[in-house]
Amino acid sequence: MSDPMAEIRASFFIEAEELLESLQDGLQLMVDGDTDPETVNVVFRAVHSIKGGAGAFGLDDLVAFAHRFETVMDEVRAERFHPNAETIRLFFSCADILGDLVRAARDDEPVDEAVTAPVLEKLELLVGIEEEVEEELDFTPSTLTLDFSGDGGLPDLPDLPDLEPFPEPIDGAGSEARSGFRVTFKPHVALYTSGNEPLYLLRALRDLGDITLTCDCSAIPDLPNFDPEVAYLTWDIEVATEEDHQAVVEVFEFVEGLCELVITPLSGANPAEDDQSSIDMAQSSLADLPIAPSPPTAPEDLPSAQPVVEAPKGPEPAPIVETVATPDAPTPQTEDETSASTPPRTPPTPTQPRATVRVDLERIDRLVNLVGELVINQAMLSQSVTEAGLQPNSPVSTGLEEFQQLTRDIQESVMMIRAQPIKSLFQRMGRIVRESSASVGKDARLHTDGENTEVDKTVIERLADPLTHMIRNAVDHGLETTEQRLAAGKPAEGHVTLTARHRSGRILIEVADDGAGINRARVRQKAVEKGLISEDAALSDSDIDNLLFMPGFSTAAEVSNLSGRGVGMDVVRSAIQALGGRITITSQEGKGTTFSISLPLTLAVLDGMVVRVAGETLVVPLNAILETLTLTDNDLKALGPETHVVQIRSGFVPLLDLGAELGYRTPCESYVGGIVLLIGQEDGNHAALVVDAIEDQRQVVIKGLEASYGRVPGIAAATILGDGQIALILDPVDLVGQASGRTKSPKSQFALEA
Amino acid sequence: MSLEVLAVDDSRTMRDMLNLALSSAGFTAHLAEDGEHGLEVLKTIEPDVIITDINMPRLDGFGFINAIRSEEKWSRVPILVLTTESADELKAKARAAGATGWIVKPFDPAKLVKALQMVAG
Amino acid sequence: MTEQNKHIDSDSVELLSFRVGDQDYSVDIMSVREIRGSAKATSLPHSPSFVKGVINLRGTVLPIIDLAARLGLENGVESERNVIIVVDFGGRTAGLMVDAVSDILAIPHDEMQPPPDLAADQAHTFVSALTVVDDRMIRILDLASVFPPRDEEAA
């Protein structure tokens, strides 16, 4: 078993991420005008809990920052400070920095003060303004908040302004008194009703050293007058201890104010110290609190309390003495630190079941891989059974069917482990918008939708960089300057909208801005300047938009420090494609630009149609196939010298020979009678893919090609079929996008280069 | 002496720490996430002492203590309040709500045990 | 396999030698993961002619390089005798299709010599060193140049 503290520490950082998330959520709600006190409370609690955990692990930078942030949020919570839009923006920055600090602490990285200092300063300013108010507020709420529990309060608590954890005596004063203390201790009823127990206090005192105990029972009235609700006893205790005054005061820390307490050094007393140490705060008000009172039972339990009735009166009563020997346990330990480092005595015992467990991602990945193997293995087994010619309803076959179902269930469950809401990623984008808009002096705001859409964890991680770049682009290039916006009759604040949703078995993520749209004339001119296109190239609007994805293309007249980092949209596209995704662009002049990313739900499995073409077996993702049909003479129309279109209902769809497009063969003589897969694309365009035969429809485990080989045009990945043979998984969109479309055989056999 | 302790805190980290500290001291730890949850757990166990955070969703520490104290059965159970503030204001609040004592976060496990022994033997 | 020069000392390198076309080649045995019989490869569209395709190596996708084609030798006659040497290089794994595996040789470093600087027709050479064993010239393969460059996609 690993170090439990290290485990808790790791779990703290996970919890901190969750807290940061609710912090962001809360702030967003505040921006949106939510005035529910619970919203502020959630924000406060998030910061508060991060601070608490950070304190436990001695993460001082984090604690310091969180503390300042918390102080301000506490003011907001108490409605002493009313944040405006600007302060909430500051809070957002604080939340961002808090997140940085959490991650820095997690990774043991140093914190750059240049980042925290300015924000801390601003926060300080907020708190500073409130400082005077705060001073007095330190007093008032104590009584105000008491109201709910009764009439009382603790009016004259003498040490209220003292912010130290414990009422401490003057430094060093206690330590001079070496031999011990005399303690006079008279509990009030409130001591008992608050759940305190003199016996335990006396025991705690005994732990400091040998004690000599005297119980003064003189206050106990005759039986007829005896009120069980009243506290009558007073103890006089002499503690022989090497501990200082502070240690004795600490024993009575919880009952301070609930008893009369006088602590005097046994010898070498210094009168000034006497004053310091006597905490005589007869407080009766607490006794009036409507806390279910019950008789003080403690005295009866005390060993020294037996001879109560005979106790004589007098200033120096003949004491009932009992010397309690110090237990075998730690006698005078000089420093608290010593006892603090005492190692745990017993291993942790199991407690309440937990709702979640923390699992190393590696273990999950291993499980995912194993399940992948299981699926393949099961498919191979099925195939063998089929080949062995067993009856479909034989026990083996039915057993195998159940096995297949189970395998599928296991696979789905395992994939679910990896899925998580895309929210965390979206929240990071909020920060990108805030920071990039601030840096280019634009007023911009991020809207998100569908943030609970669940996506494979790996996909989320690998989406971070491309998405960051796109968001920066949207703010930097997509949105106009405030002046331009106002001139165009738009609100000054630009909007970037980030949405996620499931669509036909894929994840669709859109980044949209409400800026000016793509300046196509400029894009075109730029592309010509860069030699990407010829001057007279005939390009549709969409063609021009897609120039943005060309390697090395950048539209910014001035390269800003945000998006002009040598990373172009071509890199974004590559990253998306590496995830098995596609990216498209649409733009409307004056209205804005939208980038749409379509991603597979998971990187691990795919529902596919197994087809054969030119002697090869291929898998076509099922979600790309709209329908399958067999071509008749009527459907086929020649178009130009080398291509065909297929008439499907009232539309015409280009005909593509899959075997020819992949370079497996030259176009066929005739496609009549050929089997066609109608492929639908995100952009609404269709294509008809000719294959030789459809073999099967099944789930396949995706095996990446990129790591072992590299990218293959038109191919998304590979898989292993039931016979152990590798089949390639088609990337229909890529294939269609690069297709030659030749379905008539010209002379050349080398005309198929993509 | 082995105590049965109910510890209520909305922070998972803090619950983990409490659990570790309590179990290491040989105590039996029961954990709850907030006041409401704490009250639910109280229906099934009889702890010797209760530790509770103040700032919690649903039912906060003050409300939780009030609810406990309003039941005859729990009127005397020692309750320790966990707080990051050492301000006396909070001690006063806690005490007024019916708390027995307090523990300042981040707590030192040895001090926690000492505090527990001070209120529950 | 012949039995010769099996003694190994610290100044020598162990090589796995094999035949491609009519020539003797070898690779550092440390980069050899396993040797296996040929299997039907699934061909990759638009791939260079020397890439035979990919095969299933216990659940992973293994690209197969037809070494004879890669080296520009006469296409090795594809026969049942073809053998695949699975090699690791630079974090990548690939199978080299060769005619036959010959031997394991321990060659002292000082018996290896750089290939003569011929003005070869190819821009890059696939041989990093030469040595002679029993009057046969053994070419030590430069795996870095044999592996297809990683990012040669057309996108």
UniProtKB/TrEMBL annotation, chain A:
InterPro entries: Bact_Chemotaxis_CheA, CheA-like_dim, CheA-like_homodim_sf, CheW-like_dom_sf, CheW-lke_dom, HATPase_C_sf, HATPase_dom, His_kinase_dom. It comes from Celeribacter arenosi. Its EC number is 2.7.13.3. This is Chemotaxis protein CheA. Residues 1-105 form the HPt domain. Residues 401-603 form the Histidine kinase domain. Involved in the transmission of sensory signals from the chemoreceptors to the flagellar motors. CheA is autophosphorylated; it can transfer its phosphate group to either CheB or CheY. Coiled coil: none annotated. Residues 288-358 are annotated as: Disordered. Keywords: ATP-binding, Chemotaxis, Kinase, Nucleotide-binding, Phosphoprotein, Transferase, Two-component regulatory system. SUPFAM superfamilies: ATPase domain of HSP90 chaperone/DNA topoisomerase II/histidine kinase, CheW-like, Histidine-containing phosphotransfer domain, HPT domain, Homodimeric domain of signal transducing histidine kinase. It catalyses: ATP + protein L-histidine = ADP + protein N-phospho-L-histidine. The lineage of its organism: Bacteria, Pseudomonadati, Pseudomonadota, Alphaproteobacteria, Rhodobacterales. The keyword Transmembrane does not apply. The modification Phosphohistidine is found at H48. The keyword tRNA processing does not apply. Residues 605-741 form the CheW-like domain.
From TrEMBL, chain B:
The keyword Iron does not apply. Gene3D superfamilies: 3.40.50.2300. Keywords: Phosphoprotein. It comes from the Bacteria. The modification 4-aspartylphosphate is found at D53. PROSITE patterns: RESPONSE_REGULATORY. InterPro entries: Bact_response_regulator, CheY-like_superfamily, Sig_transdc_resp-reg_receiver. Coiled coil: none annotated. This is Response regulator.
TrEMBL record, chain C:
SMART domains: CheW. Residues 12-152 form the CheW-like domain. CDD domains: CheW (cd00732). It comes from the Bacteria. This is Chemotaxis protein CheW. It comes from Celeribacter arenosi.
